[in-house]
Every structure is written in C-alpha cells, then in structure tokens.
Amino acid sequence: MIQNEREIRHEHVLEAVRQMMTAARTAPKGKGIDIIEIAMVTGEDIQRLSDEMLNLAAETGFKFILRDADNILSAEAIVILGTRQQAQGLNCAHCGFETCVEKPAEVPCAINSVDLGIAIGSACATASDLRLDTRVMFSAGLAAQRLGWLGESRSVMAIPVSASSKNPFFDRKPKEQPVK
Fold first, then answer.
1. Phi and psi for 43 in degrees, rounded to 5?
2. For the chain, which has fewer Cβ within 10 Å, the N-terminal or C-terminal residue?
3. Which residues are paired to 157 by β-bridges?
4. Considering the chain, what is the average pLDDT of its residues?
5. Could you give the CA distance from residue 56 to residue 50 in angstroms, rounded to a whole number?
C-alpha cells in the first residue's frame, strides 16, 4: 500500500488536534479545579466563525480582525478554549480586589485566566511536537464566544491549525476591506 501524505494530511491534523485538546485538558489547574472548556471547529463552521469575525470587525473597526477572519480560512481545524468563571476562594488579590467576595462578578478570576493560559500552552506545545502550524488568536476566540460555542465560557481563545509547507498564520498582510 502506498499512501501519499497529501491524501492523509487532513486525517492526521484532526487526530493531532484531538491530542492538543487532551493536552489542554490534562494541563495543571489552580487548586485542581477544572473550569476549562475545549472544542474543535472544522468544515463549514470555520466559515461561520470567519463570518462572525467579519461582523465583529465591522462593529469594532479593528482591521486586524479582518486579516484574521481571512487567515483562519487556511486552517484545517481550530481549537477553541475558554474558561468558566469561578472564583477560586484564594483571596489572592491577583484580580485587583482583596478578597473573592469583593470581586465583582464581571471581573474574571485571575486563577481562571492563568489556567486557560497553561491549557493553551500545553495545546500549542503538543502542536509544536507534532510539527503543526498554529497561532493563538484572541479575535477568533472572541467570535467563538459570541457564537456561544463554549456555553457560558468567557475569555475564549482560538488556535487555528494547519499542516502546510509554510505557516499561513505568520507573515500576514493587513486587510482593509472584508473578504467576499
């Protein structure tokens, strides 16, 4: 049997993304409490995410979101990661308030944000070990959050994944108008 890499690449990327998701899940968590949500976006949902990013760019005027909306169309899959908001009861003051009781509900728990960052790092390290192309994107994460793809999660981030001869997520040119 002969298998051409081009013919099996997509299958390989999807399996690798599943490994990234596992790495994010098993990453260390503050107080051992798992408040991370993770999902994989593929197929037509990548276009839906790009369309929501175009809406976001129109609302905010941020041109980098236009660039990113076009850029994620080069992804074979996108990992989205977010954190449910749950004060950890440490009264650590990293959020800017002396105690968890004083912290307003709309202010994220710093420990939740750190947990998300560690999960993202674990996922990206796995992708790197597997020689996949990635980039962490706030813009695509925000669009996924607006679409409600991770339920009540806040601080959603996205990691588009590609396996191509050149990383499509770097050396990007700015966009001035939405891509049609």
1. 55, -135
2. N
3. 81
4. 92
5. 10
Q: What is the pLDDT of residue 36?
A: 96
Taken in order 15, 17, 21, 23, the sign of the CA dihedral is positive
Parallel/antiparallel/unpaired status of strands 77-83 and 133-134: unpaired
Compute CA distances 119 → 18, 22, 97, 158, 159, whole Å. Answer: 14, 10, 25, 12, 12
Q: What is the pTM of this model?
A: 0.90
Whole-angstrom distance, CA of residue 107 vs CA of residue 112: 11
Q: What are phi and psi of 130, to 5 degrees?
A: -95, 5
| Cβ atoms of residues 139 and 68 within 8 Å | yes
**Bridge partner list, 69:** none
Q: Given the structure tokens 């051992």, which residue do they identify?
A: 32
For the stretch 142-173, pLDDT in tens is: 999 999 999 999 899 999 999 988 888 887 77
Helix ranges restricted to H, the chain: 5-26, 44-60, 63-71, 110-129, 138-146
